[in-house]
Amino acid sequence: MTWMKEVIGTEKAIIAMCHLLPLPGDPYFDKEKGMDYVVEMARKDLHALQDGGVDAVMFSNEFSLPYLTDVKTETVAAMARIIGELMSDIKIPFGVNVLWDAKKSLDLAAATGASFVREIFTGVYASDFGTWDTNVGETIRHQYRIGAENVKLLFNIVPEAAKYLADRDIESIAKSTVFNNRPDALCVSGLTAGAQTDAQLLKKVKEVVPDTVVLANTGVRLSNLEEQLSIADGAVTGTTFKYDGKFENHVDVKRVKEFMDKVKQFRS
C-alpha cells in the first residue's frame, strides 16, 4: 500500500488542479476586479471539482505567466489568503504548488496545512524561463526547518517547457532522484499543461522505480485515462476538467463527473 491510500484515501488517485487567476504582481492581474474576484473564481472551480468527485485538489498560481523561478512574496501572500478564505469549503485532501519555486511551495504548505507539494526539486535545465537551477539539499533542509517534514513531496522530473542540461535518459534521472532524495512521488509530464504524457516514458520510469509512486502529470483525459492509469499510480489533472478542455477556461462539473465515473469504473 502506498502513502496515497493513507493521505488521499485511494490508490490510483486523481489530484485535480485548481488554477488560480493572475495575482497581485503578475502581469495579467485584473486590478479592477481585484483579489475578491480571484477568491470567488477559485471557490467556483473548487466546488466544481469537489462536486465532480475528484480525490484531492492542488492549488497553483497557474496564470502567473510568465513564471518566475524565484517567486515574490506577494504571490505567496495572495495564495495563502485565497486558501485561507476557502478553508471551510475544502472537503478533500489538498496540496499546493507555487510555480516554479520549491521553497515557497513548502512555505505555503506549512502555512495552510497542505498535505503535499509538487515542484521541480532537482536538476539543472535550459528552459523558457532561462537557465533553471535547483538546490534540493537546501530545499529539504528548509522543509525540516519550517516544520513541514510531513508534507509529501511530488518531484516533477520532466519539467514543462524545459530540458535537462546534461544528456541523461529518463531512467537514470528517475533512479538517481529516488536514490539521492527519497521523493514521495515522481511526476512525469508532457511539454505543456494539457499535453499528453508519453505512455512509454511513464512505463520506463515505473519499471526502474517500482516501489515509488509515479504520477502522470499532464494530459490525462477520458480517451487515454485507462492506458495512463494502468501504468501510473495516479494522475494530476487540470485542463481536461475545463469547459471545452481548454486551459484558460473554468472547471466544468459535467466533465469532471464523466471523467471520475470512468476512473471509479477502472479502479473497481
UniProtKB/TrEMBL annotation:
Top-level taxon in the UniProt lineage: Bacteria
Cross-referenced SUPFAM superfamilies: Ribulose-phoshate binding barrel
InterPro entries (UniProt xref): BtpA, RibuloseP-bd_barrel
PANTHER family, alphabetized: SGC REGION PROTEIN SGCQ-RELATED (PTHR21381:SF3), ZGC:162297 (PTHR21381)
Family designation: Belongs to the BtpA family.
Protein name: SgcQ protein
Organism expressing this protein natively: Salirhabdus euzebyi
